[in-house]
Amino acid sequence: MADSTFNTDMVNKSSKKRSGSSDDQWDQLAATKKHHTMNKIPPPHMEDPAAALSNARHEFGEHGGVNMSIEASATFTVMEPETMRRMFNGELGPDRDFFIYSRHFNPTVLNLGRLMAALEGTEAAYCTASGMSAISSVLLQLCSSGGHVVASRTLYGGTHALLTHFLPRACNITTSFVDIRDHELVRKEIVEGKTKVLYFEAMSNPTLTVANIPELSRIAHDKGVTVVVDNTFAPMVLSPARLGADVVVHSISKYISGGADIIAGAVCGPASLVNSMMDLHQGALMLLGPTMNPKVAFELSERLPHLGLRMKEHCHRALVYATRMKKLGLKVIYPGLEDHPDHALITTIANKDYGYGGILCVDMETEENANRLMNLLQNCTQFGFMAVSLGYYETLMSCSGSSTSSEMNAEEKALAGISPGLVRMSVGYSGTLEQKWSQFEKALSRMQDLKAK
Question: What spatial distance separates the first Cα and last Cα of the chain, rounded to whole Å?
Fold first, then answer.
């Protein structure tokens, strides 16, 4: 199927499969359903992602339920034999409510994709089984053997390992790592005709470097390079596609899920890219098969409407804690603090009223100090949990150098600015703010007492 004709404006699924030959009848039915369905597609320049989500089409259930029905089928029937041939030839696709197999397209997963596209202001989106599958599929779709990527040297450890080890070995795709703040170096490392992708995180893991997305996009586009941005750390806060990026990837497992109970990812970008990734012969998503379960897609679609409220509280508490920690003399890294090198930038490019992100870092200088603090915070005062990941309603803490960035060697960590004692905190919103702050203070006081002995 050369073109799956993915369309963010697809109409509601009717309760019965239509014949492939009933085109006029289908067009009338589609027009009727469009009239009765909340089906407004937000313009790509819309600034507020919550407003964009609200304007996205609402999918009703098969029997009029306010929540959509779950299409749990792995395969789909047709009413006439000729219909199947036309579907495999690309004449009939999901834009007209014809589905082949759920590894290809599934109605429930497509609905979540529409919401993700609205959130990020892109033409289309498709959701995957994990964040890493979204990242790897995009890179494999955009780069062929002999291709080249320019990437930030500060990335999630799994992404860094993919670019450093797996892609060169398995696919002959190489990467040049750069300081993403050094725009001249970025420009210099792009090799016209060979470099296919400029890849970076909107807010870097774990150092919280904020990328100048508009300027980096201009640099890449001047040289014909596709800009791919991981926005896992800053949904709602930053909107990379609205700032000039071509593709936005997410680990939905984090803030968008919010419950630390689901592994999922998303690719948001042009409809032409999503179509190419689902092509029967050349599509990375179609052929590698990182399929999202429709039951997972349903759960996630129910959580997106309150993502904005959750993000505002994550960000509010992170700013309050970062400010207070700094006053206590701790070395704090947080974009909301005025002494952060990217504070002015994020103030300029962030979506209004969503804050500066829900992650803060405390540099305890040594891994021993970091572990001692985290142990007290979890096991003595119940401030949070020692666990990787982020976006949970409880505060999650990890020492990045020995956990989520452990794939990097000592030199790579030093170049990325990852201190051995860097504690990454994903600030939660359970309990009251003052209750949790008191727990942090007690742990810090106890740590100082133990040092004095």
Answer: 71
Q: Are strands 247-251 and 265-269 parallel, antiparallel or unpaired?
A: antiparallel
**Placement of tokens 């586009």 in the chain:** 221
Exposure string of 21-37, with b = 16+ CB inside 10 Å and e = fewer, is: eeeeebeebbeebeeee
Q: In the prediction, which pLDDT does 2 show?
A: 40
| Overall average pLDDT of the 175-194 stretch | 97
What is the three-class DSSP state of 290?
A: coil
Residue 217 placed within a domain: yes
Full residue range of the structural domain in which residue 355 is found: 306-452
Which whole number is the average pLDDT over 353-366? 95
DSSP string of 91-156, one letter each residue: SS-GGGT---BTTT--HHHHHHHHHHHHHHT-SEEEEES-HHHHHHHHHHHH--TT-EEEEESS--
| Count of structural domains within the chain | 2
Omega before residue 206 within 30° of 0, cis: yes
- 46-58 pLDDT tens trace: 479 999 999 998 9
**Same structural domain for residues 129 and 266?**
yes
* Average pLDDT rounded to a whole number, residues 261-268: 98
Q: How far is CA 431 from CA 66, 435, 436, in A?
A: 31, 7, 7
Q: For 420-448, what is the mean pLDDT?
A: 96
Q: What is the mean pLDDT of residues 386-393?
A: 95
Give the domain CATH number at 347: 3.90.1150.10
Q: What is the mean pLDDT of the chain?
A: 89
- Residues 219 and 132 occupy one common structural domain: yes
Q: Return phi, psi of residue 274, to 5°.
A: -60, -40
Whether residue 94 is contained in a domain is answered as no
> Is the same domain home to 343 and 401?
yes
Is 230 contained in some domain?
yes
Domain end among 259, 276, 299? 299
Structure tokens at 198: 């400029």
d(CA 350, CA 335): 11
Gap between the Cα atoms of 297 and 113, Å rounded: 9
84 vs 352: CA distance, rounded Å: 48
Q: How confident is the model at residue 22 (pLDDT cuts 50, 70, 90)?
A: very low
